[in-house]
Amino acid sequence: MNRAFGQDPWKARIDRTFARALVLPLLLALLLLATLLGDTLYRSFSVQVVGGEGAGRTYPLGTPWETLVKERLLAEGYLEEEVQELLQDPKERRALWLQNRVELMPLTHEGPFRLVLTGLYDERLGDYSLLQGLRRWEELKASLGEGERLVLNPWLDASFLTRYPSRSPLLAGIAPAIVGTLWVLGLALLIAIPVGVGTAILLEEYLRQGRLSRILEVNLRNLAGVPSIVYGLLGLALFVRGFGFGPTVLAASFTLALLGIPVIVVTSREALRSVPDSIRQAAFALGATRRQVVFRTVVPAALPGMVTGVILSAARLIGEAAPLLLVGAAAYVPYIPSGPLSEYTVIPVQIYLWVSQNQPEFARVAAAGILVMLMVLSVLYLAALYLRNRFRREW
């Protein structure tokens, strides 16, 4: 009966077997990604024994930062009047903020959910993995000396996002890298979006299909697959040295824009191709000009696909480190970039710096930075998924 209707049972069985076999690589990839994410999350927690001037105390929730710093300064021998002057002086207050980090610890030797004040000269006396530290918690708590504290330290917390890099892992933060990433990515998209979308419209709607169009399409697809390090070499020769921008945000933005333009062109052309020709024909039949058809009918219909392509391109650019290292991204930048001609760092470069340090705690700081980058990428991918599903049209 199946043969009568043109269905071969053996071919159907082979198709089902092949479809099931394709599920195995997918499950393996998901398992590897989950393992990687779990390992990174696990490394971002540790149990630590910290010692230093006034490091042994913890404080209840709601204690003002000024109270914690004042108590530490008094313990170091400062007079009451001197402490008041330091806290009232904006420069001294900023210096104290950079040298003293207030964190909320979920578990300490004095109880759960306590504030701790980590100073510049506090040092790590013991660093244990999460499971090892929890297993030996009571033993470590009993062995604490004077001026020492025991904490379950989540390296990724609110203070990590707002603090500046430091040569001490206990005080290191990622704020300049986040702002630098926003600067570089924002300027790169401002350059790449008009050029990429405009090129896609020109090639798809105005340029006749022929040899030139095929050559340009092949080259654009090849450029989209060129290793990013090549763009870094181009940016170093052209923008850093040729135009004299130097190792600044502007040079990095132009370099990443070159990297993102081919991807935006390819995705925008696919979005334009998805618009049926019948819509164009209907607009022409109503007397619309070529410009009106393109910019009032075709581009609005293809806009969701274009936006999705731009977001996916931004997600790729935000994780690039190799080209930015070549164009002068500084590994250590202790300030927020103030403009396009400022020195800068980005999240991937900052993570690279932490991983290359000899102190083992910097590996945990790097794990926290990786989680920040993964959260940013997740937001971008979810935004692309939402926009694709929200504005998708069936023709």
Helix content: 55-70%
CATH architecture of the largest domain: Orthogonal Bundle
Question: Tally the helices: what do you get?
Answer: 16
Q: How large a portion of the residues is in β-strands, by DSSP E?
A: 5-15%
Q: The CATH topology of the largest domain, please?
A: MetI-like fold
CATH first level of the largest domain: Mainly Alpha
Main sheet makeup: 5 strands, antiparallel
Secondary-structure element pattern, one letter each: HEHHHEEEHHEHHHHHHHHHH
Q: Count the strands?
A: 5
Strand adjacency order, main sheet = 3-2-5-1-4
Question: How many structural domains?
Answer: 2
Q: What would you call the shape?
A: elongated
Topology:
Blueprint: H1 9-43, E1 45-51, H2 65-75, H3 80-88, H4 90-99, E2 100-108, E3 111-119, E4 123-128, H5 130-135, H6 137-142, E5 148-154, H7 158-162, H8 175-206, H9 211-224, H10 228-242, H11 249-273, H12 277-285, H13 290-318, H14 322-326, H15 347-355, H16 361-391
Antiparallel strand pairs: 1-4, 1-5, 2-3, 2-5
Question: Would you summarize the structure shown here?
Answer:
One of its GO terms (biological process) is phosphate ion transmembrane transport. This protein is 64% helix and 10% strand. The protein is of the alpha+beta class and 395 residues long.
